[in-house]
Design a protein that fits this description.
The protein is built from 29 helices and 19 strands. The protein is of the alpha/beta class and 736 residues long. Bound molecules: adenosine-5'-diphosphate and magnesium ion (MG). The site of magnesium ion (MG) has 3 residues, from helix 4.
């Protein structure tokens, strides 16, 4: 009588598994935390509240829970965790698991020793369990570690908490018998490995197949993504399917855009749990600082907007006039996303109206600190772009606080001039987790040429541009913190040209009449600059335009001036290659040159006629803009094609996935039927393969000593038939 009973138990146990998976999926779907939200910020669940299904369509909340037992995870895993002594979750586990169990990509950072290992082992086991992964499915997850020792530790954790799951796991690390690994590697569901060893298998092991990979994990991701492993990681990732879940964990946030692009992360959840960072800025906020020379700021902003046409972007500029100019000019260039602006002159009602529109649809809002103050972006925005450096750290926090509200994720980017790098230190001192990065200039689209054409065409834009220029320079001049803001280091001619202005406007307070007082050609050594900085501190009178102040500013600018021939020498001596210096001679030439004939040099140093790049194509002024329209249309079409392409790809992927699932189901059905038909079948049966497929946990550990691995292969905790039956019965009785 025993055998029929065991068959029945097996069928029931399978049904129980299917039911459990269905329940878990519904439960997870029901309580999915908002993308970008931090479960840590939710109040903890009451200790005695029910867990799992509450009634027909209601399930218990798991975002915000504190115990592993409250999570929507399988009973197998709950048992494994409990037996390994894990009860309460650590912060990184609480913050990341509700997201990762819902299938999201994760970028998690928490101090060493904070429990990151379980934060990725749990979702790996559950993902495969819910997919009913079996030996025949091959490699379902790869967990990469930078060192053998760490890989070994991870393997240990996996074995202990995953012992009730039926997965095979392999440890692929250097220093062991490679050939023996080769024999097993294709039968492993979970591979824990170092990048070098994995790549070796990918390259040389016949039939090594990762095409069904479900989850990729990088532990100590910052180390794996750094230069040492770059080649290996690139080669590995290029062979993995893009449609997968990716989990990155490290002690520091690794958010370099390039790294993420390499790993094809999809809207990852940024999870940082260190106390200090939570205190200063929301931890769902990804904060980047990039170095942008003043004359490339608009190019960078334009390129940024063009690259984020589906977002809500809040752009901060220093002055009202800049806001108006950039808004007007960019509007005429039609980036393909609605542009709006908020400035101090607007009535509150209008501001609210604009704000409302901004929150409701993808668009770009240009604003100053003053006009945005007091307005609450209750839904948060996707991006805060600080084109101009904030006055101080408090203003920085205020600005980025506009994004990443409680229920949303946010990103921010701050453009800093080379002379403003001190601001980065200030932010870091205040424990604000900013990431400094060099911008990707490959995709930088230049707009200064287009702006020059616009300014020539729309006459009323020119005064706007001039005022934008003047007010910006003045705002820097008026800044109190001279360690960060140094008007003398602004490349003002280049800046003016970058706004499309044919010549640099006169700055009233930069009186140039005494310009020749300076010793011609005297080089300025770097140490002189800080010494002179003191001069431009505003006087207590606060009247910044006082004659004496002007003199001092002038003095400073002049100190870098040279006669023509010494220009290069002086700049070299200055060691500030991005800083161009006002020259008297240049001003004279500019004064007599008609508007719109700025001299441009080509790559060989020959002068080109005004707007040569566009004139090249032999168009008139209006033709220019037609050409531009055509280009825009092309760009739009390209975008459109891209989206369609993407849709097609998705569809194709979906179809292939459905096909795969069908095949798998067919296989499993056949297997189940075979099992049901075969009364004599049991685990001691002759079919060795099906034995492995069905019940056992095969752990292959290449670390174990030389003797035959097959022995070591079934290394851990195989549950006997009797134990299985007992477990299934327990499971069944617990369901009633
Ligand atoms: P990290 O990877 O962040 O450095 P680990 O995952 O190695 O941290 O965990 C550090 C230690 O904390 C390990 O000994 C681990 O067993 C223990 N640990 C992890 N999570 C928990 C938990 N929820 N409860 C108790 N101990 C835990
Ligand atoms: Mg770790």
């Amino acid at each position: 009588m025993k055998k029929p009973k065991s068959k029945q138990v097996r069928i029931q146990s399978r049904n129980t598994e299917v039911q459990e998976i269905q329940l878990l999926e519904k439960w997870i779907e029901f309580g999915k935390p908002e993308s970008g939200s931090n479960p840590l910020s939710l109040p903890p669940l009451p200790a005695k509240s029910p867990i799992g299904r509450i009634d027909e369509n209601t399930y218990s909340q798991y975002a915000g829970c504190t115990k592993f037992q409250q999570l929507p995870i399988s009973k197998n895993l709950k048992d494994g965790l409990r037996q390994a002594g894990y009860k309460n979750m650590t912060n990184i586990q609480r913050a990341s698991l509700p997201h990762s169990l819902s299938g999201r990509d994760i970028l998690g950072a928490a101090k060493t020793g904070s429990g990151k290992t379980l934060a990725f082992i749990i979702p790996v086991l559950e993902k495969l369990y819910k997919a009913r992964w079996g030996l025949e499915d091959g490699v379902g997850s790869i967990i990469m570690s930078p060192t053998r020792e760490l890989a070994d530790q991870l393997f240990g954790v996996l074995k202990s908490v995953g012992k009730h799951h039926g997965f095979s796991a392999g440890l692929l690390i250097g220093g062991h018998e490679y050939d023996e690994e080769k024999d097993h590697v294709n039968r492993m569901n979970i591979l824990i490995c170092t990048p070098g060893r994995l790549l070796k298998h990918m390259d040389t092991t016949p039939n090594f197949d990762c095409s069904q990979l479900q989850v990729l994990v990088l532990d100590e991701a910052d180390r794996i993504l750094d230069a040492g492993f770059k080649k290996e990681v690139n080669a590995i990732v290029s062979q993995l399917p893009k449609h997968r879940q990716t989990l990155l964990f490290s002690a520091t946030q690794t958010k370099s855009v390039k790294d993420l692009a390499r790993l094809s992360l999809k809207d990852p959840e940024y999870i940082a749990v260190d106390e200090e960072s939570i205190a200063a800025t929301p931890n769902r906020l990804q904060q980047k600082v990039i170095l942008v020379p003043l004359d490339q700021k608009l190019d960078m902003l334009w390129s940024f907007i063009k690259a984020h046409l589906n977002s809500r972007i809040l752009v901060f500029l220093s002055t009202c006039k800049q806001v108006r100019f950039v808004h007007e000019a960019f509007k005429k260039l039609r980036p393909g996303i609605p542009l709006k602006c908020l400035h101090g002159r607007m009535k509150q009602v209008k501001r609210m109206f604009i704000l409302q529109q901004f929150v409701e649809q993808r668009s770009v809002l240009f604003s100053t600190d003053v006009s945005s103050r007091g307005l609450d972006f209750n839904k948060g925005v996707d991006w805060v772009v600080q084109v101009d450096c904030p006055d101080d750290v408090a203003t920085y926090i205020h600005r980025v606080g506009r994004t990443a509200r409680y229920d949303s994720i946010g990103r921010s980017v701050l453009f800093l001039l080379p002379s403003e790098m001190k601001m980065l230190e200030r932010l870091q001192e205040k424990k604000i987790p900013v990431e400094f990065d060099k911008p990707n200039t490959k995709r930088l689209q230049s707009v200064s040429g287009l702006l020059a054409a616009l300014l020539a065409k729309y006459k009323d834009l020119q005064p706007l541009a001039q005022r934008a220029f003047k007010t910006y320079v003045k705002s820097i001049y008026k800044q109190k913190d001279k360690e960060i803001f140094d008007v003398t280091k602004l490349p003002i001619d280049d800046f003016s040209a970058s706004l499309g202005l044919p010549m640099t406007p006169q700055l009233r307070y930069l009186n140039r009449k005494d310009i020749d007082k300076n010793t011609p050609g005297e080089p300025v050594s770097v140490p002189q600059i800080p010494a002179k900085k003191d001069f431009i501190r505003p006087k207590p009178s606060n009247d910044l335009l006082e004659e004496s102040d002007d003199e001092e500013i002038l003095d400073l600018l002049r100190s870098k001036e040279t006669t023509d021939g010494d220009d290069a020498k002086a700049i070299a001596a200055d060691n500030l290659p991005t800083t161009r210096v006002l020259k008297k001679k240049k001003l004279k030439i500019n004064v007599h040159r008609p508007v719109g004939t700025r001299v441009v040099f080509d790559e060989e140093g020959n002068t080109l006629p005004p707007l040569a790049r566009l004139a090249d194509i032999g168009t008139t002024d209006s033709g220019l803009l037609d050409k531009q329209k055509v280009m825009e249309r092309f760009a739009e079409l390209r975008e459109e094609m891209k989206t369609r392409d993407q849709e097609d790809k998705l569809l194709d992927r979906k179809r292939r996935k459905e096909k795969r699932i069908k095949e798998k189901e067919k296989y499993k059905r056949a297997r189940n039927e075979e099992e049901e038909d075969d009364d004599e079948d049991d685990f001691s049966g002759s079919d060795k393969d099906s034995k492995k497929v069905k019940g056992s946990k095969v752990y292959f550990d290449s670390d174990s000593d030389g003797d035959m691995k097959d022995k070591a292969a079934i290394k851990t905790d195989e549950i006997s038939l009797a134990e299985q039956e007992e477990l299934a019965l327990k499971l069944l009785s617990s369901m009633h």
